[in-house]
Amino acid sequence: QYASPAAASLQAAYEIAQLIRDKQAKGERAVLGLATGSTPKRVYKELIRLHREEGLSFKNVTTFNLDEYFPMQPGAVQGYRHFMQENLFNHIDIDQANCHIPDGSIPTELVRSHGEQYETMIADAGGIDFQLLGIGRNGHIGFNEPGSHSSSVTRLITLDMATRMDAAAEFGGIANVPKKAITMGIGTIMKARKIILLAWGENKAAIVRQAVEGPVTEFVPASWLQAHGQVKFMMDDACAGELT
Ligand code: F6R
């Protein structure tokens, strides 16, 4: 629990930087699972600062993003490729060829094999060392909406109305929010060696309490994380307000 989102974000960025440097020292690559949305933006800002001011290099880093809307054109401003370029990739020395995001622009019939390829690419990279997560107000992680199975893999899902409503402002109205998304599965996320979930503000307090203190249930996908040995929930005071 942290006094502010900024304080928690600095700590999360520090842990990521530490992993990258440890791997660098061993001549290995660091494989990061990344999230979009408002929550991780400050983490990315701090990573950019560490790159600019403290020489943190991302040359040995491979990234896999959690999810992308479907359908979504690669250049679209609401798309997660655009989000990652703007908020991180354009400002660091990462090789863009090592930055993976599910492709929301492929035809529906190719999504299944795309999901399988995504899983294979993660496995071929050696698996995810560190996964950064946010949480939806309905408890989703990635776009694994309530009902997602614990062994689910990268696949096409139908977005909940609540998720689409939360995205409506960005798309200029709910009618413009895609109805589907491609997301890593709960099973994909649970294979990450270390996980940090970030959550800020009182509007996430109730779902964070359910995820941390409630039963492990598919109705709160983030509650599956209770079964992971190396997971940390980082939140600000406002978000921790309902924890006992
Ligand atoms: C984003 C993602 C989602 C978000 C969640 C919270 O890649 O996978 O699970 O983390 O919807 O979104 P924000 O941070 O905008 O509240």
Automatic annotation (TrEMBL):
Start and end residues of each Glucosamine/galactosamine-6-phosphate isomerase domain: 5-230
Protein name per the record: Glucosamine-6-phosphate deaminase
Biological source species: Paraflavitalea soli
Residues represented out of the complete protein: 30 to 273 of 649
